[in-house]
Amino acid sequence: MKCQVSPRLLLLPVLAALALLGLRVQRFAEEPVTTAPLLPGPDRDAVDPRHRPVAAFQWHGAPDSRGNVTVKPAPTRHPLQPPYPYPYRFLLNEPHKCRERTPFLVLLVVTEPGDMAGRNIIRQTWGNESSVPGVAILRLFLLGVHPVFGQELRAVLEEESLLYHDLLQQDFLDTYNNLTLKTLMGMEWVSKHCPNASYVMKADRDVFLNLGYLVRRFLVPPKKNFMTGYIYRNTGPLRSKAYKWYVPPEVYPNTTYPPYCGGPGYVFSGDLAGKIYAVAQTLPVINMEDSFVGICLHALGVSVTGSPWGVFNMYRLKYEKCRFSRLVMVHHYQPQDLLKVWPHFQKANVTCQS
């Protein structure tokens, strides 16, 4: 069935281009430039050096507890530390999604406000709620407010929300250092509006996902206090301002992180959403989203669960149907790449050895 496209939506390419330009300018002003040398090869450590091994995790003193407070942070808050806890408002919400059904899997996809084209491709590919026969999947996109063109994009996003009913947006700025706020928004939504979901999958937009293999291989029968993905152990914060992953001691004083799942894609049992959201109200939030989730799990006394090597791939692999059919996630697949490989991946006439 074809949907009539509003004239406002036709303006999106222009707005997106302007938004991208504005975001580049804003990031140039706010984020340090990565000038440190990178290691060769496809390993993600070469791209994101914060995952290089260091000493085993240990706490250096207990973090200050701020409790479940909803007031503005103190003026001494470091600029890289996202304001939290804070009474962020939902500008776009879908509070009734789980009233008539309880999804087996809630899919939370991190996206930018102006990326309507990317969202449409994800809706047609791995984000299709009917992609796994017999499994109830609920898809939601997570976004903040564009730091330059927030007001201009508002009407476009409202129309997209009315058309697809799958956008969640709160009134924080959509920046790299606020990715933690996006994930916490998703945790908040699940805990308040869909607490009975069996599982939640958090995924970035630039991944290839095989939800069918994920469900069959890892999620049956349902579990509690469960999280898995590509696990990083014995890593620590980067203290050099040369990296965009810079985390100063004022934001995170410890020299190591507890074990955590890589941010491009990880899955956890539905009960953990409320627990992570609750404990996040008592911990100083840091600007590294995946590391902070690991900190929350440590505070809860919950361990990450290992997955077979390579099932969650943190670097790009050349597409091969049989190989991808035995993987959950492959990083660095942009939505445009999905248009090239997804039709072939869906074909049933390709036989793979089990």
TrEMBL record:
<keyword id="KW-0333">Golgi apparatus</keyword>
<keyword id="KW-0325">Glycoprotein</keyword>
<keyword id="KW-0808">Transferase</keyword>
<dbReference type="GO" id="GO:0016757">
    <property type="term" value="F:glycosyltransferase activity"/>
</dbReference>
<dbReference type="InterPro" id="IPR002659">
    <property type="entry name" value="Glyco_trans_31"/>
</dbReference>
<keyword id="KW-0735">Signal-anchor</keyword>
<keyword id="KW-1133">Transmembrane helix</keyword>
<dbReference type="InterPro" id="IPR045821">
    <property type="entry name" value="B3GT2_N"/>
</dbReference>
<protein>
    <recommendedName>
        <fullName>Hexosyltransferase</fullName>
        <ecNumber>2.4.1.-</ecNumber>
    </recommendedName>
</protein>
<dbReference type="Pfam" id="PF01762">
    <property type="entry name" value="Galactosyl_T"/>
</dbReference>
<keyword id="KW-0328">Glycosyltransferase</keyword>
<dbReference type="Pfam" id="PF19341">
    <property type="entry name" value="B3GALT2_N"/>
</dbReference>
<keyword id="KW-0443">Lipid metabolism</keyword>
<keyword id="KW-0472">Membrane</keyword>
<keyword id="KW-0812">Transmembrane</keyword>
<comment type="similarity">
    <text>Belongs to the glycosyltransferase 31 family.</text>
</comment>
<dbReference type="GO" id="GO:0000139">
    <property type="term" value="C:Golgi membrane"/>
</dbReference>
<comment type="pathway">
    <text>Protein modification; protein glycosylation.</text>
</comment>
<feature type="domain" description="Beta-1,3-galactosyltransferase 2 N-terminal">
    <location>
        <begin position="85"/>
        <end position="106"/>
    </location>
</feature>
<feature type="signal peptide">
    <location>
        <begin position="1"/>
        <end position="29"/>
    </location>
</feature>
<keyword id="KW-0732">Signal</keyword>
<dbReference type="GO" id="GO:0006629">
    <property type="term" value="P:lipid metabolic process"/>
</dbReference>
